[in-house]
Amino acid sequence: MFQNCKKYWLFFSAFLLLVADIFIFYLAWQNYHRDFTFAMLDIGQGDTLFIESPTGTQILIDSGPPRKILNQLSQIMSPFDRKIDAFIITNPDQDHIGGFLDVLKIYQVDEVFEPGTLTDSKVYQNLKDELRKKNIPSILAKKGMRLDLGGGVFIQILFPDQDVSFWSTNDGSIVAKLFYGNTSIMLTGDATIKTEKIILEENSIAQLNSDILKVGHHGSRTSTSPEFVKAISPTYAFISDGKDNKYGHPHQETLDVLSLFGAKIFRTDLLGTIIMKCARINECVINK
Predict the structure, then answer these.
(1) Which residue from 16, 135, 213, 224 has the highest number of Cβ atoms inside 10 Å of its Cβ?
(2) How does strand 283-287 pair with strand 274-280?
(3) Residue ranges covered by each domain of the chain
(4) Which CATH fold would you assign to the domain 34-287?
């Protein structure tokens, strides 16, 4: 009888090992066969973009106002995933950084990219203090930097091209272009028409042309000039704005400019979170 028990135990152990091997293989397969995901999260009046490359690298661009982002992240990330590779702060206003402190309570973050604009707001100072406590390096984003996310995904920084520490937070906003194969997205933060003019002067039409324009400053008339939209020539325009917000975003002038150049407009106040997934390079679908 002891021999039979030993035999059954060996069989059971072998079975468990087989199941464990299959599970590990499945996880490895998942890590290398993920979709490319680009999402504009519905966090009210603010900005939050989530990017995940096919190799699993995850980046948050801005975090919206406080107490909004965690619920949205739980709908797009696995409950077992507690790591975000990097934050990109396009500008240090509360509607762009207010949620980062919430994220840092739960998620491990490796590094932060900032434009170099400054503010004495308590939210920004608290965030800087927390980054120091956790020894998370803060890197100044500069024109020419290329952030490789793996799996054919990379972000090219277009602005700032100079020291913007004395600029307004919107004028000094990070502007970048996201690439995945032939699909590209222009990321503008709260960049103003002043910033757009600099980018137009420093880049060719070919460098600026993009499939999607993340519309600057929630659709405010202070951004999205006709000259800039013409150069970008987007098929789609994504606007992050809060329902019935007090600023009247997006402004009708901005919507008119986008329509003039044939961009199909997606708004978080009307559609909620907007997600683009690409199962393969150049095979992308926008879910709304």
Answers:
(1) 224
(2) antiparallel
(3) 1-33, 34-287
(4) Metallo-beta-lactamase; Chain A (3.60.15)
Give the DSSP H/E element, type plus range, for residue 101.
helix 100-104
Tell me the two tokens of residue 251.
């402004």
The partner residues of 36 in beta bridges, in order of sequence, read 278
Contact residues for 266 (Cβ-Cβ < 8 A; gap 6+): 40, 236, 237, 238, 239, 274, 286, 288
Give the type of residue at 100. Answer: F
First to last CA, the chain: 62
Scanning 150-221, the segments in alpha helix (DSSP H) are: 193-202, 205-208
Could you report the per-residue pLDDT of 114-162, keeping only the tens digit for each?
A: 999 999 999 999 999 999 999 999 999 999 999 999 999 999 999 999 9
Give me the DSSP letters along 34-86: PPEEEEE---SSS--EEEE-TT--EEEE---STTSHHHHHHTTS-TT--EEEE
Name the residue with tokens 């960049």: 191
197-225 residue pLDDT tens? 999 999 999 999 999 999 999 999 999 99
Token pair recorded at residue 245:
């917000």
**How far is 4 from 56, CA to CA, in rounded Å?**
46
Whole-number Å distance between alpha carbons of 73 and 62: 13
Q: For 9-27, b where at least 16 C-beta lie within 10 A, e where not — what string? A: eeeeeeeeeeeeeeeeeee
Q: Which residues contact 182 (CB under 8 A, 6 or more apart)?
A: 281, 282
Of 219, 161, 166, the residue nearest 195 (C-alpha): 161
Could you identify the residue written with the tokens 């460098």?
207
Q: Which amino acid is at 194?
A: K
Give CA–CA dist 271/258, Å, rounded. Answer: 18
